[in-house]
Please model this.
Amino acid sequence: MGFTSAWSISSHPDSVIAEFAPRLAPALEADRSDPAARRRWAAWQRSPLPDHRTWHADRAHAEAIDSFRTLTRPGERVDDACNGITDPGFHVMEDLWEPGPDPADMFVSVHRKDYAVAALFHAMGPYRAALLPGWCGNVLLTAAEVRRTLPRVERALTFTAEEQARVGDRDWLDYGAREEHVTDGPLRVWRAAAAAGRGLCAVALHIY
Model:
């Protein structure tokens, strides 16, 4: 069955972050603390996966590949919270995107039958992924927390020319001519939010 997923990172005043918190923070924490998810995260941290182009025929890593795919797809609780299932009065497209910030203060990656967070995590590897706040692409931060976490995010997403070539080779997503890459957009928005004194909301979800 087909699906379309999205990963968005947007900056907002702290007052808006406070409005989102009761709806999104419990879901994020539930996904993060799920024992099965923690086991999948630990397994990937211990044993990074080989190049994605070998996965279709790699029987030796089949279980680990499936575990990684499950880990990096939208978390069930955050997905439900974003799509109005947990709270029919809240839907991310209506309450976060439509009245949302200027496009310069937002990164959105939408893909059919694929997940942006999975591609980013495979490209950057487990050590750098562990530097990112939140859980598997989902995070809710105040302006102060954005400023405090920016150095870690910069370490995670700043690459030398040699590293950039390797990371780009491991990013399997197809991009349009004007589409921002998952290795570029998150850091741009993080820096802009820190400079403007704004908070951040990042969510990974299924659109349909």
Q: What stands out?
A: Strands lie at 4-12, 106-112, 139-141, 199-206. The chain has a mean pLDDT of 94.
